[in-house]
């Protein structure tokens, strides 16, 4: 098992990565939280696979388990209405401030369970138990929680750090191959941000859902360490944390313009390559840097660009919540392992999209 210690200003906690961790969840949760009672929040795909086992492990440690809360799987559930149902459910179960929510599932569950925990009784502890690659390497760590509004994704939320994150990589065996591959876009993004040797490893041996648990543990742990370094230095995204948005401004525009038919990680991968090519064209990084990034993305079979017209991308990018008045913050690679945030005008951003094609 790998243990990554995260030390944010609001709460220190550990991220545990390995195998056989779900069976030990009771002991791990008790050690991290001291709780006597908990409630599992999950969704209709992951719940039937893992919730019985998780609840049995919690009960075996003498932790009282309230009836679980399950919502329909998928991004369309990430609404204020579902959040309201979860909050009512916690209240019906009479959870107190000494009790703990266990958010069991992928990124949507982590966001929903995390936000419900942040709001209920003005905040109770949450243990994140991510079961998808995206949730393990990204969304379960760092305390971002959110629901979507009609106007856009993740527009309502809170920073609410978990008390513990338990990533049992054996759960990745039940992730559909296509979804796993899509999440590799975020893994490659982390490597470009802070770990050049990880990028080389990924290019020479692309990550797959069939990888053995040793490799999955190692790659997840390296990603968590990268994210830990960023969120420990800047919990609230005032500066360094913005670099985690590498590939996201164009990526979000591609995602929204494709009506979310393309996966988030694939869109980030395409946005990452476009920004890297644009940075090379401007002389902000060497062309070899952009080529290296593109080779790794292509090796995973992820898209390295988009055919969507620049004006379409601009229309969606200007609705991005990271926009500042008439400017937009973009993240560009300086070299593999080092990126920087630049504020550019929308006009300059349009030119960069063109330069990145
Ligand atoms: N997923 C980006 C962040 O957590 O800041």
Features:
three-stranded antiparallel sheet, 357 residues, 22% strand, globular, alpha/beta, binds glycine, seven-stranded mixed sheet
Regarding quaternary structure, what we see is: single chain
Number of helices: 13
Strands in their spatial order, largest beta sheet? 1-2-9-6-5-3-4
**Main sheet summary:** 7 strands, mixed
Which percent range fits the helix content?
Answer: 40-55%
Termini separation: 42 Å
Order of helices and strands: EEHEHEHEHEHEEEHHHHHHHEEEH
Net shape: globular
Poorly predicted sequence stretches spanning 5 or more consecutive residues: none
Radius of gyration: 20 Å
Q: What integer is the average pLDDT?
A: 96
- How many DSSP E strands? 12
Strand content: 15-25%
The ligands bound in this entry are:
glycine
Plain-language structure description:
The mean pLDDT is 96. The longest helix has 21 residues, at 213-233. This protein has helices spanning 25-33, 46-60, 80-92, 107-119, 133-139, 177-194, 196-204, 213-233, 248-257, 264-282, 287-299, 310-317, 346-355, and strands at 2-7, 12-18, 37-43, 64-71, 100-105, 125-130, 144-149, 152-159, 164-168, 323-324, 327-335, 338-345. It contains 13 helices and twelve strands. The protein is of the alpha/beta class and 357 residues long. The termini are far apart. Helices cover 46% and strands 22% of the residues. The radius of gyration is 20 Å and the shape is globular. Helix 6 crosses helix 8 (213-233) and helix 7 crosses helix 11. The strands form three sheets. Strands 1-2-9-6-5-3-4 form a seven-stranded mixed β-sheet, sandwiched between helices. It has a three-stranded antiparallel β-sheet with strand order 10-11-12. A two-stranded antiparallel sheet has the order 7-8. Bound molecules: glycine (GLY). Glycine binds next to loops.
């Amino acid at each position: 098992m790998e243990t990554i210690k995260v030390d944010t200003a609001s709460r220190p906690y550990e991220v545990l990565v390995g195998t056989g961790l779900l069976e030990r969840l009771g002991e791990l949760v008790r050690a991290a939280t001291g709780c006597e009672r908990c409630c599992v929040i999950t969704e209709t795909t992951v719940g039937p696979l893992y919730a019985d086992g998780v609840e049995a492990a919690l009960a075996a440690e003498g932790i009282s388990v309230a009836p679980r809360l399950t919502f329909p799987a998928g991004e369309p559930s990430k609404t204020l209405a579902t959040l309201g149902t979860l909050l009512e459910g916690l209240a019906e179960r009479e959870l107190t401030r000494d009790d703990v929510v266990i958010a069991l599932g992928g990124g949507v569950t982590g966001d929903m369970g995390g936000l419900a925990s942040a709001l209920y009784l003005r905040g109770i502890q949450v243990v994140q138990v991510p079961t998808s690659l995206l949730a393990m390497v990204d969304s379960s760590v760092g305390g971002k929680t959110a629901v979507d509004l009609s106007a856009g994704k993740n527009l309502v939320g809170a920073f609410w750090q978990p008390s513990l994150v338990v990533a049992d990589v054996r759960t990745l065996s039940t992730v559909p191959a296509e979804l796993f591959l899509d999440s590799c876009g975020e893994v490659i993004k982390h490597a470009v941000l802070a770990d050049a040797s990880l990028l080389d490893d990924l290019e020479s041996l692309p990550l797959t859902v069939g990888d053995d648990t040793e490799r999955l543990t190692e790659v997840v742990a390296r990603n968590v360490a990268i994210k830990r370094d960023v969120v420990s230095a800047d919990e609230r995204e005032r500066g360094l944390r913005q670099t985690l948005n590498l590939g996201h401004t164009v990526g979000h525009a591609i995602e929204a313009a494709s009506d979310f038919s393309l996966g988030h990680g694939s869109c980030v991968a395409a946005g990452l390559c476009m920004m890297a090519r644009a940075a090379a064209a401007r002389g902000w990084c060497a062309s070899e840097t952009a080529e290296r990034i593109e080779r790794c993305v292509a090796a995973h079979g992820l898209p390295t660009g988009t055919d969507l017209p620049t004006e379409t991308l601009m229309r969606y990018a200007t609705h991005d919540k990271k926009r500042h008045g008439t400017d937009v913050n973009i993240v560009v690679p300086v070299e593999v392992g080092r990126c920087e945030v630049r504020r550019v005008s929308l006009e300059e951003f349009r030119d960069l999209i063109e330069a990145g094609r």
